[in-house]
Amino acid sequence: MAGSAAGLALTAAAARVIVGVPRLTDSRMKWTLACLVALLPAAFSCAAQVPMPADGAMDADEAAELQAAQAATGAWYARVADALAASGKPRDLAFAATLLQLAGQAGMAGAAPGGDAPSQAVPADPRVGKWRQLASARAGSDVVANALLLQGDAPADAAVRTQALARWRKLEPDNLAPHLYAGTAADWLPQAGRYARLDQHYYEQLRWMQATLAAHPQTAAERAVLGGDELPADGAAAVAAAGILAAVAAPALQPLVDACRGDALDAAPTRRADCRQVARVAADTADTSIGTSIGVALLQATAATPGEQADARERRRRLDWRMLEWGRIAGSQPDGGAAQFARLLRDPAVRSERDLVERVLAEARVPAEPPAGWQAPRR
């Protein structure tokens, strides 16, 4: 879901029944709620994909509803964070730190998007760093716990992230994923032959986060503000978890892209071959659509023969078809596909976004392969 057009569409549509701002116009509501779910200022980059309507600022009632939703979600996250931290378990501590950080940043939102009032920063809660340090000391061989620790991106979290990545790389030496969080792709590209998979454990993280949030549901007062009565607790938790993952812990993909295109392909004798190895691993094994998409893009950028170019184009056509159909199918459902997403998330056979999309298409009786001659519409 993270990073894909269909994932954004699903999150936006499902968020309407979670944070419920019924008087917002549909176009503004899609923008606001897609970005609201995770309560991160960074999430407002969604506007690049779902533009604000031309009329700009919200009116006073809409701004008040948005701020009430932010406050209610922040209260929910803070309450869950306290309960999780009390367990002392590494996953719980790591996720508690993320939730508490998100809850605190609800106070940074200030005015609603499009308003003129400046945002007001709030002091960082010292428990966030403390919990991440404790989680790091206890994470050990738990890959999910170490991946959850990557959700902290403040300068103060740098040491914890470095330690978590080192543990993850040692635990899974054939996994490309932990290397994507490094700043310089050229440092690890010469070892491209070691990597056989790109597994961010995304759905494993998502499934665990969803179950954790569902075990600590919204209060009646929070549901009254957020519209939670329109979606079961596990559905609300699934969309909230997806929103959080969509806004935090994104790997650094741009350095890899920059190292594998144009003149950079001649920077080292084996660079093109190394980039193509990484591209194949990502395109064939990535557990998220954005990972698959990056792999296909690198196959296109490094193609040296007509056959390689044709293969990359066909892969892109197939991926575009599946993403667009997923978005269309989800958008045609009354709840934007939220209930179906939560149901499929409960199935342990759904281990990746590829699995989930194939199931969504199969249930809608839509072929996984595009029709002959079909091409994705381009802006």
- Tell me, rounded to a whole number, the average pLDDT: 81
Sheet-strand content, in percent, reads under 5%
N→C terminal distance: 22 Å
Poorly predicted segments: 1-55, 110-119
Structural class: mainly alpha
The profile of the biggest β sheet is: none
Identify the overall geometry: globular
Total strands: the figure is: 0
Alpha carbon gyration radius: 21 Å
Helix count equals 16
Helix fraction?
Answer: 55-70%
Question: What is the H/E string?
Answer: HHHHHHHHHHHHHHHH
Keywords: Signal
Protein name: Secreted protein
Short description:
With 379 residues, the chain is an all-alpha fold. The chain has helices at residues 5-19, 26-36, 60-85, 90-105, 126-139, 143-148, 158-171, 202-214, 220-226, 233-247, 254-259, 271-285, 289-302, 306-331, 338-345, 353-363. Residues 1-55 and 110-119 have low confidence and may be disordered.
